[in-house]
Amino acid sequence: MDTAPPHSRTSTSWNIFFNLLSQAIILGTAFLTTPYIVNKLGEDAYGVVILITTFLGYLGLLEFGLSDALIRYLTQCIATGEKEKFRIFLWSSVIVYVLIGFLGGILLTILTPQIVYYFLSIPSSLQQATMIAFFIGAGSFMINLLIQPFRAILWAYGRIDLAALVVLVTGVMQPLMAIVAISLRYGVVGVSAATFFTNLSAFLLVVWLATRLHRSWGKPVWDTTSLKTLFRYGGWLSLAQIITQGVSSVDKVLMGRYLSAAMVGYYNLSLTIPLKLWIIHGAFASSAFPLLVSLHAQKASSVEVFRIMHRFARGVQLLLAPIVLFLVFFGGLLLHVWINERVAYHGRLSMGIASLSMLLVGMNAILHVLVRAWERADLSAKAYLGAALVYLPILFLLIKRLGIFGAVLSLFLYYATELFLLLLFTKGLLRIPISAWLTLILNRHLLILAALGLGMTSLQPLLAWSPLWKLLVIGGAYLLFSWAYVWFIGFSREERQSILRMLLSRFGRESVPSS
């Protein structure tokens, strides 16, 4: 018997669908705009843009897990009808975000000359523009922080679709504005300014949406007790965020230090599409969290929890498989056609390994949501920490010895270690043995699609076609067949009907005018 209420499952399905749709649009926009940005900026300037984004990401760690904690407690306040407590949590966090943004902006402004002139290997012709871009980035950082408490309101009211809408606007607007700035010959500075105005637009949008949902804001208030509660809960999440942020950017920083800005650009381009596949497991994980919290509150059995988790993980893996394997076998052709031959030469192996890593990341995301729903954010942080302790020394050695290939190989080992630790923690938490997950880890559908891809790849040297035609004909045929295989064979008839019912019922309700 299902424990979670039916409406929770319906809203979960809609949130998954809307997240996937919005992120697919963002991915498509990035795919179409990136070649123009890279080729117009140049490889060194593009590498500089990536480095600026990396350092701004480090500053984001200054929030100490406050955003996730705020979502949790605002949701609880809405569920229990505690309006005054809602006001206290909200305004206290807004004040803290203003202070963090101000201090972070000053810190970045002070450190920028040392970062540009002494730490990174920036070409002398780009150093002045990089300085200005960093200063603009400080403003972007402050605005992006102020978005967080208002975004938490959307999540607290269960409007993940509206939160995804804000991300959609940001993800589409930023590259389009960057293209305009580059076409006007503003270069790196123009790209940084595009990010600033995109964040400002997102801030205005999310504030408007939040006020539509929660009209009674009350007077500003500062409450240290509420802040202690938020930071206590967010402590482990903050540690997890620090580790993941470090892992996601330290490879680029080390390459910027020991290799070159151009190599950072090659590496980033090879990972751009594989890392965007988080939209699939991210949509499942974020939408699964409320459902799993409900199961935990209702003391659901381990059998029911595992059944639901298995369905989530299996859905993620099946949706990832066609794209992952396409990138493994045809990634070099894609880079050649998408950017240029030089990028394909440097990045084809990296793209393949990074794509395979996404299969591990997808399962990791579902397991992280499980342990956090069971109020064990410490296990999530410990999994990140344990994997990072293995990853960092290997990364340092392999980058110096193998360059880009060493970096992405280290990343794969990081995700594999993280998965192993999460499976161990899940076994201890819910008594779910590791062997229960083997049907997912050793998925026969993946093996069948991999064998087909290997056979089709062997045809490439036999055909005297251009890379574009090989990609369109052979790669396109493989992708279409893979999707058909997953839909008709990978998913059961019941699963296909469930997906279609969810979509049709949702759009059917939306099309009915309200009385």
Helix-strand pattern: HHHHHHHHHHHHHHHHHH
| Rg value | 23 Å
Find the structural class using helix and strand composition: mainly alpha
**Overall pLDDT:** 81
Estimate percent helicity: over 70%
Which geometry do the CA atoms define?
A: globular
How would you portray this structure in words?
The chain has two domains: 42-248, no CATH class; 259-491, no CATH class. By secondary structure, the chain is mainly alpha-helical. The two termini are 36 Å apart. The protein has helices spanning 6-41, 43-59, 66-80, 83-119, 124-156, 160-183, 187-213, 224-258, 261-276, 278-297, 302-338, 341-373, 377-402, 404-430, 438-441, 444-457, 467-490, 493-511. The longest helix is centred in the N-terminal third of the chain and has 37 residues, at 83-119. The chain has 18 helices and no strands. Helix 11 (302-338) packs antiparallel against helix 12 (341-373).
Offer a quick outline of the entry.
This protein has 2 domains: 42-248, no CATH class; 259-491, no CATH class. 86% of the residues lie in helices and 0% in strands.
Primary descriptors:
disordered C terminus, about 0% strand, mainly alpha, disordered N terminus, about 525 residues, 2 domains, single chain
